Task: structure prediction
Amino acid sequence: MKYLDGLYSLDNFFGSSKHRLPFKAVHWLRSFAVNRLVPRTLLRASPAELALPALREEAHLSGEGVNTDDSKPRVIITLTTYPKRISTVHLTIRSLMLQQPKPDAIVLYLDIKDFPQRMQELPDSLLQCADLGLKIHWCDGNLSYDKLIPALVDFPRDILITVDDDIFYPSWWLSNLLSTHVLHPRDIVCHRAHRITLQDGEIAPYLKWQRNVDSKQNAAGEFTLLFTGCGGVLYPPGALHSEVRRREQFAKLAPRADDLWFFAMAVKQQTRIRVCEPHLREVIDIASSQSESLYQTNKLGGNDVQLAAILDDYPEVRETIVASLREEEDDVS
Result:
């Protein structure tokens, strides 16, 4: 985990305004550091393969797992995965188990249709996580929505934090989310968010939004930040409108854009979104799991189509977002 934290520190240092370097330069420096610090036999290894020995060693030393103290509301991390990533998801889970402080539970939701034999089909690497406190729940699948929708039913009074199944999270990731939550307990808190922008008086195309903003943008319009799931998102109880669970709606309007649906339901509920500080400027992904990604599809225009469908069905959400954006412009002028 110290290895992972070091790589994240490199990104955050050179991504700061004082030491700003181009995006490609930061990645070159990170690659250079990896190639200089590890044996030559590992030079072709993915970040996941490089980090695994460190994860195993620190798990042994630090008491890997989840919090066993009785606390309310509980802090519950939730995620989902599918067959093509079932052999690597344990790497994400192990990084979550090494957080300080520890979560009260980590829940992995799996679609029964994907694993009809249930536990018998799961790899030993995942079953070992279950021995350390991971809870595996079975559900009637809704693809990426499974990381949150069933948890809203199972844990309605708890703090839910969703994560992606293909990311390593540094040891300070959870602490930073919770620190901001303590200050703003009613708000949704995230590590990564894009700031929506206007074009000709309307919401601009997704690729023209301001990417990966920092906490300074929290002072901007109340409903102009779209959280992105890869960095992790903290939802306090009641943060989303009750319609969030309407399967027929999100399956029709945004079948491959859960972040957009959850964002719209936050706006409908009048819940503000905040970026924590320091936040994850970049993420370290599990390279072998990246062949299929919703991001690859949605960045090619899929997000614009699905957001338009949501806003057509929920015009009050569109009005709230646009009004907040125009208010920002008035404040600047």
Remarks:
- DSSP finds eleven helices and 13 strands in the chain.
- The mean pLDDT is 82.
- The CA atoms of residues 163 and 229 lie 6 Å apart.
- Residues 294-313 form the longest helix (20 residues).
